[in-house]
Amino acid sequence: MQLPYGKRHKSLDATLRSKSGSTLASFWLAGFLGVALVLVLASLVGVLAWLAGEQAAADQEATSWAEVRARSVASRVATVQAQLGELASDPGLRQIFRDMDPDAVRAKELSMLHQVPDALGIRLVAPNAAGVMDGSGSYLSYASLDLMSRALEERKVSALQAHRVAQPDVHLGIAGPVFDGAGAPLGVVYIALPLSLLTGAEDLDGSPGRLLYQQLVGNEVVSLSPGQASVAADMPPTTFVEIPGTSLRIAVRPTQVGLSDNPVVVWVALGCSLSLLLAGLSLWVPFRRLKRALAEDCAGIVALVDEGVTRRPLSPLKCRVVEMDLVREGLAPLLGRIGSAQGSVAGLGEQAPLFDLEAQDPFFTLDVDEADLPPSDGHILVEDEQGEQPGPTPEGDQSPPDQRDPVQAKGSSEVPSPGQLAIFRAYDVRGVVGAGIDDGVMGAIGQAVANEVAELGGRSVFVARDTRGSSEALTAALVEGLRTGGCDVVDLGIAPTPLLYFATRYQGDTSGVMVTASHNPPEYNGCKIVLAGQSIAGEQMAAIEWRVLRHDVVDLPQGGYRLQDLNAAYVDHVERDVTVSRNLKVVVDCGNGAAALLAPALYRALGCEVVELHCDLDGGFPGGRVPDPSRLENVGDLIDAVTDLGADLGLGFDGDGDRLGVVDSAGRFVAMDRVLMLFAADVLSRHPGTDVIFDVKCTHLLAAEILRSGGRPVMWQSGHSRLKAKLRESGALLAGELSGHVIFQERWFGFDDAVYAGARLLELLALDPRTTAEVFATLPDAMGTAELTLSLQEGEAQLIMERVLRMADRMDGVTVNTVDGLRAEFDGGWGLVRASNTQPALSFRFQGNDQGSLEAIQGLFRRLMARVAPGLVLPF
């Protein structure tokens, strides 16, 4: 049973309570709120429209008022300009300019004051003195001298300007040139006028706004008012009106129309309230009638059911609500059959649930009948003291299940169905060498892949292998199968999986096969398959399996073969993309795996000081253990090296280099779901609002951090192929899982690459002056476990999960997510159980806000597992 993502389940009592009158009341309330919302919105739109109209009218009135003021000032200025023109034609004035006798000049200035009664002062200035300050006269400034010079140059009366702003002798200045009969300049007349020439700019009672006279002085706007000048610093004006004949303008600031002093608001509020009251009453009356009718119909149907199950004659019943009458018509014939089949059940009462955790924990209820569970049919067995789990062997075959030849001989009369080959897993091929995986199987897989490539219109296939002892021979068999199927093989030799992915993408989408079993024990091997640039899973993997099972392959003209080294191209590509801004000392632990050929060289090219650890390709896997950097117990050497050498960071890689482990400068292991918090914040800073995908094993705190950074968290199934498929489907730019796979679609090709992810992490940490331990310490963390696994026989994990999922919809007080296994979210933390995709095992993980909640959640899962698979020795 697959449940919707995040579905919250309720107990039966809660469901019954939810179907009482309160449910109908909620419908009434929803309708009422809908009507209320429409009325409020309509009223709000009306009020806003009215406000907009009123404000537009106020703006227009204020502008018209300013235009009247501008015309009035322009008329006064025109009068002064005309007076200047008359003075310039005075023969006596011309003679005084020719003589420039100081006494005569002063006498003339005084007499001219009578001719221009509004003037504060008049100065007669010779042409050669129009740009020189003599310090002898008031109302003269550098601005007035400049005004006179321009009047002479332009040979006309100047525009009116404000001079000596913010000074005691602030005034308005205007200048007019004087010429002799031949047009030669004799001098200039400068008249200083009071600010009272301008109409007052203060707010007046009943005015539609505020008007300010302004003059631009450089980049500064100076506002004027009679008697003083000051820089305007309050509300910005909405429009400006220029004053002809001056360098001034009027800044218009209309009165703002508000609601507080207008009776329209009161009337709107009153009308809205009355409308809501009438709407509520109109909805409430039919609601009450419907509630009474449904109550009567429900009582009648309950009585009808009681009569049916006790084999009493069914009473005639006519429901008041037509829909309920349809229910009655459907139930009546069924009730008769139930009564006759069961016999007398008059004593039937409530039965206690078989498995009740509610008494033990108030937020977890599990009530399952045995009939809900599939039969165990001998597959779920109790472990013996050594942890071995013997399984049933098919009749006539006494060899262990995973040692039987999975490939049927040609011409077999019985063709197995897909899913029988245990080596074919969710998104790759893995099995024990010699007991499921051998040269024949790899050759058959090569031919099957070659046929799939041909159907996609391709021909070339890249091939690479990890450092396992069995990989070279299996790769040779795979290459032979690919060539037999007509493919040209490009052999990358020993290389990490990311380099194979890179080869299939960087020059166009190509196919490829990586011979590896990743982090499985040394006796395992297998392959990862890429078709047309995309890792395959699900139906595509099933198609390969089907071809192998049925020998549904076609021999084509043999393909070619060549070797190629792409390490330098990869390093060059990443070096152009990633910048590490400061020197970091990093310890690189490749676990004697294929990443040793790539990671140290790349990080040195990025400017880091690299210390190599377990980078010997001939060293095998120490202690028979393939590196798995996602687990704390596997990075002990890396932690010691980081702390002993005082390194900034430790980076660990798995056997084929597609999974990353991180150790900070304090020697603390950093789980990948917390590293994803850093990556998500970085990517979302450039692409806000995009999806970030993570698997079900990740901490619940990751989703909160993604939301805080402005992204959309998407929880999905574990497995690199599934994450990549979801990334392509959603258009997300980042995906990752707890096991260490990190997939960048931003600035990269959208495949899981631990070497590139390490480079991106170095780039981020180099931008922060803090130590890496301080950076990671700022990320939220919770108390919990790493991923815990319980090894089983092939197929048992899937069977157990079927039984677990049968119980999922009976869990109360939790949010259940069944996108991959069963993840239960509690107020105090979460727990997960799922079937591993890469090995026959169950996978568990738990987190809690504190030790108490963590232990409580683990206790609940122990009881759950005891119910579905009694006798399992759990790893927690």
Q: What's this entry about, in short?
A:
This protein has 876 residues and is α+β, with helices and mostly antiparallel strands. The chain has 21 helices and 33 strands.
Can you describe what's shown?
With 876 residues, the chain is of the alpha+beta class. The strands form six sheets. Strands 11, 12, 13, 14, 15, 16, 17 and 18 form an eight-stranded mixed sheet that branches. Helix 2 packs antiparallel against helix 6, helix 8 crosses helix 9 and helix 15 packs parallel to helix 16 (700-708).
Shape: flat
The total strand number stands at: 33
**Largest sheet at a glance?**
8 strands, mixed
Distance linking N and C termini: 26 Å
Please tell me how large the radius of gyration is: 44 Å
Number of helices: 21
- Fraction of residues in β-strands: 15-25%
Structural class: alpha+beta
Regions with pLDDT < 50 over 5+ consecutive residues? 1-22, 201-206, 227-233, 338-419
pLDDT average, as an integer?
81
- Roughly what percent helix? 25-40%
